[in-house]
């Protein structure tokens, strides 16, 4: 999934991404999954999902790609 934020003053937070990851074909939360964040093909961070499969990121202005990994 690509997400774009902007414009923002250099060095300031531009937005928040929050989501929930569930297991295939169901509503069972996927806890402990790592959501990796890429910008321009380069890894810029990651965050784990909580017990409810939820995650939250605060990011600077720009375009990002999110990839869940096990």
- Main sheet attributes: strand count, strand direction, barrel closure: 4 strands, antiparallel
The secondary-structure element order is EEEEEE
Write down the overall mean pLDDT.
82
Oligomer: single chain
Terminal CA distance reads 17 Å
Decide which structural class fits the backbone.
Answer: mainly beta
Secondary structure tally: strands: 6
Poorly predicted tracts of residues: none
Question: How many alpha or pi helices?
Answer: 0
Strand order of the largest sheet: 1-6-3-4
Helix content: under 10%
If you had to describe this structure to a student in words, what would you say it looks like?
With about 70 residues, the chain is mainly β. The chain contains no helices and 6 strands. The strands form 2 sheets. It has a 4-stranded antiparallel beta sheet with strand order 1-6-3-4, with no helix packed on it. The chain has a two-stranded antiparallel ribbon with strand order 2-5. The mean pLDDT is about 80.
